[in-house]
Amino acid sequence: MLAANVEDCVDANGNGVIDTSQNAGDVRPWGQDECILWHIQWPYGGAWDDGPRGVTWTPGTWDPVQCKYVDPKVWIGYMAQDQSSVHLVRVAVDGTVEETIVVPGWNGSGFAPYGAALDPDFKPWFSSLRGEFVRVNTDQNPITVDRFTPPGNVQSYGFTVDPDGHPWFGGNCGPITRFDPDTQTYTAIPGTEAGCWRGVTADKNFTWVANNSPCALAQVDRMTNTLVAQHNTNPCSVAIGLSVDIEDFVWLVDQSGWAWKIDPDNVPAMQQVMVPGSHYVYSDMTGGQLKSILPQ
Fold first, then answer.
1. Which residues contact 249 (CB under 8 A, 6 or more apart)?
2. How far apart are CA 231 and CA 110, in angstroms?
3. N or C: which terminus of the chain carries fewer CB neighbours within 10 A?
4. pLDDT digits (tens, 9 = 90+) for 141-181
5. In 3-state terms, what secondary structure has residue 157?
6. Can you give the pLDDT at residue 296?
7. Best CA proximity match to 36, nearest among 70, 12, 60
8. Least confident span in 25-34, 67-76, 79-88, 105-114
9. What is the largest CA-CA distance in the chain?
10. Is residue 201 classed exposed, middle or buried when 0-12, 13-18 and 19+ CB atoms within 10 A define those classes?
């Protein structure tokens, strides 16, 4: 867990200053950066494709006295040491592992859970790469897991859950697909069958999906399940990550060294933000997905 603000870091060596990495030329050795508050070494399989990928926050519980949510949690998925099952774990903000759910026989093309998101009932969902996805029923005691296997053409990669509780998949390579948990039905969005889709995010009106073939940003009306447009970001190299921030801006990360800040009401006026280096990100990288599912 890293502190987002210097004032939240801890002067562990007592020298009166916060020792933390400042830039690419000042990266502190592991254990010497005082803005890393804690870390957990998971007993995972050991390969890079076994480690944690899918991560989603929960807001915690509502405190009527303080008039806000308190005690937030984070859910993380990783591959177990035997590489035949995955662990879905709930962690408190102090690093305490509060819950571990084991899902045996995980179907995820050899990878740990690939994406994660929270639904309006505060139940975390985890997706796989071209395989199954699960819902963690935190309202049950003991906690149970529902497992779903989409049709083979879905080819799931990117994943999110919209404000109505519908999971969405970006197919790699397959269509953009919506799942309705109530009717157990999958809806492929017309006109997206030939795309090579990556990151997915949803706001109050649209689902946004990064495309690599052609390189673009797709905008889907999630009320009518229709493709509104594919927007050319210009330049566009390898569009990867998508997330909506708490101010309702859509952020698209291009792997080749930049991101785009997009106003959903004026997409052509998108702003390019240079972020040097190669960035491979997806899922809810801003934390803004919580805003879309919280009661307003």
1. 261, 262, 263, 264
2. 33
3. C
4. 999 999 999 999 999 999 999 999 999 999 998 999 999 99
5. strand
6. 59
7. 12
8. 79-88
9. 61
10. buried
61-63/144-148 β-pairing: unpaired
Contact between 112 and 86 under an 8 Å Cβ cutoff? The reply is yes
Task: Return d(Cα 263, Cα 203) in angstroms, integer.
Answer: 12
The 10s digit of each residue's pLDDT in 3-39 is 999 999 999 999 999 999 998 889 999 999 999 999 9
3-state SS class at 8: helix
Residues contacting 163, CB < 8 A, separation 6+: 120, 202, 203, 204, 292, 293
Alpha helices in the chain, H assignment, sequence order: 289-293
Whether pTM > 0.85 for this model: the answer is yes
DSSP secondary structure letter of residue 291: H
Distance, CA of 174 to chain centre = 20
- Mean pLDDT, residues 222-228: 97
Question: Is the CB of residue 100 less than 8 Å from the CB of residue 75?
Answer: no
For residue 49, what are the CA distances in angstroms to 53, 69, 90? Answer: 9, 34, 20
Give the distance from CA 82 to its chain's centroid: 25
**Nearest-angstrom CA–CA distance, 40 and 280:** 22
- Find tokens 């916060």 and name the residue: 18
Chain-centre distance for alpha carbon 227: 22
